Amino acid sequence: MSTAKPFKRILLTGAAGGLGKVLRERIKPWADVIRLSDISPIGEAQDGEEIVQCDLADKTAVHALMKDVDLVLHFGGISTENNFEAIMAANIQGTYNIYEAVHLAGVKRVIFASSNHVVGYYKTTDYINAEMPMRPDGMYGVSKCFGESLSRYYYDRFGIETVCIRIGSSFPEPINKRMMVTYFSYNDLVELLRCAAFTPRVGHTISFGVSNNPASWWDNRYASHLGFQAKDSSAAFAHKFPDSGDYPAADDITTIYQGGAFLLTGPQYKS
Amino acid sequence: MSTAKPFKRILLTGAAGGLGKVLRERIKPWADVIRLSDISPIGEAQDGEEIVQCDLADKTAVHALMKDVDLVLHFGGISTENNFEAIMAANIQGTYNIYEAVHLAGVKRVIFASSNHVVGYYKTTDYINAEMPMRPDGMYGVSKCFGESLSRYYYDRFGIETVCIRIGSSFPEPINKRMMVTYFSYNDLVELLRCAAFTPRVGHTISFGVSNNPASWWDNRYASHLGFQAKDSSAAFAHKFPDSGDYPAADDITTIYQGGAFLLTGPQYKS
Amino acid sequence: MSTAKPFKRILLTGAAGGLGKVLRERIKPWADVIRLSDISPIGEAQDGEEIVQCDLADKTAVHALMKDVDLVLHFGGISTENNFEAIMAANIQGTYNIYEAVHLAGVKRVIFASSNHVVGYYKTTDYINAEMPMRPDGMYGVSKCFGESLSRYYYDRFGIETVCIRIGSSFPEPINKRMMVTYFSYNDLVELLRCAAFTPRVGHTISFGVSNNPASWWDNRYASHLGFQAKDSSAAFAHKFPDSGDYPAADDITTIYQGGAFLLTGPQYKS
Amino acid sequence: MSTAKPFKRILLTGAAGGLGKVLRERIKPWADVIRLSDISPIGEAQDGEEIVQCDLADKTAVHALMKDVDLVLHFGGISTENNFEAIMAANIQGTYNIYEAVHLAGVKRVIFASSNHVVGYYKTTDYINAEMPMRPDGMYGVSKCFGESLSRYYYDRFGIETVCIRIGSSFPEPINKRMMVTYFSYNDLVELLRCAAFTPRVGHTISFGVSNNPASWWDNRYASHLGFQAKDSSAAFAHKFPDSGDYPAADDITTIYQGGAFLLTGPQYKS
Amino acid sequence: MSTAKPFKRILLTGAAGGLGKVLRERIKPWADVIRLSDISPIGEAQDGEEIVQCDLADKTAVHALMKDVDLVLHFGGISTENNFEAIMAANIQGTYNIYEAVHLAGVKRVIFASSNHVVGYYKTTDYINAEMPMRPDGMYGVSKCFGESLSRYYYDRFGIETVCIRIGSSFPEPINKRMMVTYFSYNDLVELLRCAAFTPRVGHTISFGVSNNPASWWDNRYASHLGFQAKDSSAAFAHKFPDSGDYPAADDITTIYQGGAFLLTGPQYKS
Amino acid sequence: MSTAKPFKRILLTGAAGGLGKVLRERIKPWADVIRLSDISPIGEAQDGEEIVQCDLADKTAVHALMKDVDLVLHFGGISTENNFEAIMAANIQGTYNIYEAVHLAGVKRVIFASSNHVVGYYKTTDYINAEMPMRPDGMYGVSKCFGESLSRYYYDRFGIETVCIRIGSSFPEPINKRMMVTYFSYNDLVELLRCAAFTPRVGHTISFGVSNNPASWWDNRYASHLGFQAKDSSAAFAHKFPDSGDYPAADDITTIYQGGAFLLTGPQYKS
């Protein structure tokens, strides 16, 4: 009948994280049941929800997580720079576990929360697209490169479709000048996910997740088939970052490279 | 005086066809006389019209058709898949006849109704432009490849300008999900023809004929000089094709390739 | 036993033509039987040969020609500029007939004698490859564009593999200065055919057929998988075309464009 | 306090010229002091202005001009075709003097008024970007090529940032059909300058200066990081240039090439 | 004195592996000491050698391994398809350990044994280069993608240079038809390593490791600065793989894709 | 009769310079008369020579120089870094004078001694071609950029053909490690000039002038029509620059960029 939702069950990993919480409500119209998973507590299941606390590094648990799932929104794992072993467990072993489970369970499509940090070592004067070589800006970024390569394999070998979303800065509003370029509003995030979920064919698509901001580093041409059209813009917040003639120092790598302050958080500070 | 129209006489071939009928009225302001031609009956000539019933495969008739013509809108021929011999007569012999007549009559410009089916074997996840190799999806598409190559020759050799329009789906509205990508409204069609007719120099230009739809397979960068800006969008019809999680089968070539159902109508079904 | 040849039966069309005669002897080691076909008389069948006189425009005859064939070397048709109707019958209808017959007979691969005249309207200062748009220099060239488009379709739709060879100037030796660039020795032609016939996968490949001459207009990168390595060079004939400071006139199109004197033989001289 | 302006002192060369007069008022909010320079008289200094009459070919004067400057808008020199010696003094020696002075004074950024005439010999059917080879259309254009190369050197060697703006036709409104493509409104000019002045990093950027006109020859992708979004369009003036079927002559180079009538003003008419 | 070798100490990981054994002797002239490491026993140290048995997944051991090293040839880890956890320990954790140790020890350059299996899902009719997206053909390939991304990061962030060598088939001779394309003789391997070790600047270079074979899938243009010129060719072994007209089945993925039989060994066969 | 030389009179500017002296003898077979010009004394005219001492900055003298000339080899001007005013007089005013004289005298072709220093700010790990943006490494390089732009204009506007040769290091042999990449033997220089002089059409061609050295930074694909095939290689001198593991410092710009030590000689050292 007309009240049927498009999917029976969507799995959202990382549901207790910043974006996970945003998505929890927004994607409800897409499936009869949203299965929410995180390594941290998520709270009570509401109507149309299932809650499964799960460590993605636990293969058996991840395989159980996938039962009766139609679509996966893989937002789980570590989302900032951290020590490599932690990132490896969560983002490398974890993402591998997701894909093996997807494969065994016969799920047809994954939306993978990749990151702009897979290309953070391009310059802020570069204009790049999804077919150019990756230039990660830390261990977090390297782990997302792994996820993109892995998902490409599962598509080429098994036909499992993935949309990798290289998420910019998805926050309520830009909080520094860099985010005037990388801002990705929650509304635009949800709209891009909607396009990624419902376009009949996506193959293996890489899309930059970014609003319609005035300045742009990313050319989304290779995701044109998704039909995503950003409606928000950082221009609405321009008054918070007034024009300044106080140029950054010539050797300030946080403004030379797209990755920004992320570049200062790499492994060298661990020892 | 100010009421003079830009052209004295425009020839519209295929005037009895689907698009021919649409254009008949719309292009009236462009010329003192519109000469309407088709192999089928067209009806009565109205004010400012001339009617010439003509088989494009008839060389003598086509040469006569061209007398005193300033501009040709070549929409004649067969516009769906058919047996090769019929397509060859109408679209290959016919288009050759048109160009030879254009050359002999000294007509300076042709607008050629090519088709998206010259690239129908690109994938629905590809984003292509007019300089990429053609990938026709049937005999109809192959005949349009011929027309594009032929018109290139007449431009390189004789300076006869052509705008090849790779028409998407030009109907009153999209009638299936594929047309959400390929929809080309009548208003946008007429506007693109206007740009093609009145841009001072067009050389040999290939333009995809498509409205400003959310999803896009075609990059019109090499036709930027035409100044065409689509005003309509298939988004207005999105409610007719609600989001669905029921993905097409992995081997359903009508959703893998841009050509859609056309791919199933090729020569193999004739024997 | 060890004396078995790779193929049971190869069909060579155009066997009475210039290159057909060269190939007749050279390809004997490749198949138990070489079936030789031409519209003109070919002479007596020798050991390991079959002779079938046949007009390629005759569909029924072409279908009969294909019986028990493993591989087609399609060198038939008209190989110089001519009136369009003759070219259409031989090269357009004829090539279509070949491919339909190939399809119905289940032949897996065709080697198609295309021509450098599909790109004759590039400049002699251009360096082009097989993915760039075609620029034919006459009706003959346009008919070869058709053959390339058609064969692409049969590969995309039915998996029938084709190697299109854009033959340069395949003569005993260069007879003018242009041929110092386009010379394609008989030995190199046979070697390229050998590569095209025996590479395990060729898909739809376009290869320029040219020897290892000092000057080059054509970049064969997209045929690298064929393993063709030219062994001859026009340099051996350089003494016949001594250096000259007598530059061609600025408007001499036969030296401006790659097609050379072919450019002067187009349809405009027929009327 | 909140009334502080972004810069202490901006130098505007060419302040008495057509665009200099426009900018004089518009850029006042950007700096405490605007230093105005020209070889011609500029009039009285108004509040927040300094006037320095100066020949850019005079090295000593140019070095003095740069004292205490934060940002340079280099609009000085000759802006139309002229005899080479005059252009060399003003645009070649002059621009060199500016950059040496910038280097010695420690100025960090220059906005250089380059011109679309550095690419005027591309065709009006071409769509070009900033990474394609330059094709100047006269001595003026050649001198601007020099300025672009020179500024590139000062960036690569000394880290002095430059935005080269290839200005289209910056006039109150389009006055011929070519300007329907090249029109660059004063508002859009000022906005592009604002982006060029205040983007934190620009490196060496080349941006086409053009409004959001329907037809376009220039792809500004490599300046995407500037965040410039044109708000005006020549479409507002379309009624002044009604559609016409009176095509230009086939050999009319002013419509074949982007440079327009500039092409007719080169050095050959001097002797 | 003149007998000094270029390096004091080179570390070769994977010294007990197939290629490690080959290299052990060949690289002796490059350093006073070759430190040989493997997880398996390597045998007795000979003159100018040090032997350290070491599991690359053991961080502490790897850091000790790097003491006083000038150059690393990282050939260790798992070199065939295997279960993911084993590959992750050896190739992901292991390569990370190597780079962290390199960084802490101040080693300036690494030569990383990557693999053609990072691009194994390109077609055998494709011609690819090092700037095109990776298409791994199994977990082994994915782990090598990780190594390439990781080494890019260490170069961008710390200036540690790496040459990634996408090794083809480095065996005494080709043992199947695919290896006629991918063959990489031991001599050519050593020569490429020599170029990678001694070119003054390599930055982060990706080079395909392949001999000068007739057919080629890989364009090494982006490694041109290394000066590597292969001297061997699989042509010497052509007689072992005679021409055959027995084409592979249309759906035989081991001949459709460059990865060959590797494609059949992925994770799906583990469960 | 058979002893006629291809040209009547070739003008060689810069005849007293390093390469001028080499060429003086080598090009004798190409013309009845070689007119030798330099600002410095050249010595006695020998048989078949004319000597004209001339400052290229002297317009009248340059125009006289061009009388009865068929071909110009423009090697004159300043060939190392120098103060800008000297470079401007010799290389900018001087080259302009040459082209105006060429235009007025009706000379059809110029071979222009450009320099690899027009691209000296590319990295030594880059592989570049003639269509990529110029990156000069000093005032000398900037002046050669000017010459390339100027000659492009004279070709586009007047049809005067030029081959710009971006000369590498043309010396008797490599004298440092950089020259192992940039070495251009005298024999190869003469052969490239021969190709540039005698190819029937060259339009405006940019060719890197470099021998067939093992390592390469320059892709000469856009000069393929010249037919130049280098016969010498720096490999013959490899023993003079033995392999060394003593890597240059990370911030040593003379090895980071292609321009080498030239980068240290720019204008900043003048003040």
Structure overview:
The structure is a homohexamer of 271-residue chains. Chain A has 271 residues and is α/β, with parallel strands linked by helices. In chain A, 29% of the residues lie in helices and 18% in strands. Chain A has seven helices and nine strands, in the order βαββαβαββαβααββα. Chain A has helices spanning 18-26, 59-65, 84-105, 139-158, 179-182, 186-198, 253-256, and strands at residues 7-13, 31-38, 49-53, 71-74, 109-115, 128-129, 161-167, 204-209, 218-219. In chain A, the strands form two sheets. The first copy, chain A, has a seven-stranded parallel sheet with strand order 3-2-1-4-5-7-8, sandwiched between helices. The radius of gyration of chain A is 18 Å and the shape is globular. Chain A starts with 6 loop residues before the first strand and ends in a 15-residue tail after the last helix. Chains in contact: A-B, A-D, A-E, B-C, B-D, C-E, C-F, D-F, E-F. The A-E interface holds A 84-85, 88, 92-93, 96, 100, 103-104, 121, 130-139, 141-142, 145-146, 149-150, 152-153, 156-158, 263, 266-268, 271 and E 84-85, 88, 92-93, 96, 100, 103-104, 121, 130-139, 141-142, 145-146, 149-150, 152-153, 156-158, 263, 266-268, 271.
